[in-house]
Design goal:
The chain has 277 residues and is an alpha/beta fold. The protein has eight helices and six strands.
Length: 277
Amino acid sequence: MTQEIPQIFDRNILAARRARHRKDALFLHELARDEVEDRLSMVNRTFTNPAIIAPFAEIWEDLLPNAQTVPDLDVLPLRQNSCDLIIHAMALHHANDPVGQLIQCHRALREDGLLLVVTLGGQTLHELRSSLAEAETSVSGGLSPRVAPMAEIRDLGALLQRTGFNLPVADVVPLTAEYRDLVHLMHDLRAMGETNSMVARLKRPTRRELFSLADHIYRTNFASDTGRLRASFELICLTGWAPSDTQPQPLRPGSAKTRLADALKVPETKLSDKPPR
């Protein structure tokens, strides 16, 4: 019996949110493209069958010759062993099944193909999350899901290994933007298509006093020297390779031919067999 994947995000609502985006608000996606270009420039490889998984295809136009851009559907429209490069761009944080997304990318890659993922990480909007939680607890006496959960870098790096990628690397690009007030931030998130699309979101209008209190809490705890509100964003970049016999392999333990002490040019000290007191 196939286990049903929990639906964290309402994909219809997410599509509606994205449809109302403004291109001039997609600065995070532009930065993600810059990060991808930088990483590809360091790879000594010519890719002939690349695929880009992205919610906003216009950002990725002309990145690579012959690249196909596909939407981040639950079932990716990619044939098995059809790609030598897959870029999963700014969409994994909205996946109901991120493990399944990586498995599908693995299947679509040829031997020694490269996966490059850029997604939002766990520190994204932590100021907003904290301020809304404190305000809602005070006003309503409880909490409702308002900012989507996002994975930490250690968890995403582990997912690469879990899904069978070799030579996994995970690193983070921290970013900070500033906003006049909470309304300004919320308008910008709406223009990015990044407002709340969780299945468990509150489906009735929020009381105005909650946002007023959240703005006050935000300003008290997270204002910059100029009095504007700081908002953190975290781009996590993942790279992994589909397995191949031609890739570097780790040496088996005990196979080294040079002692560490000789390499460091220091005397070797034998450890005592006596247990410590």
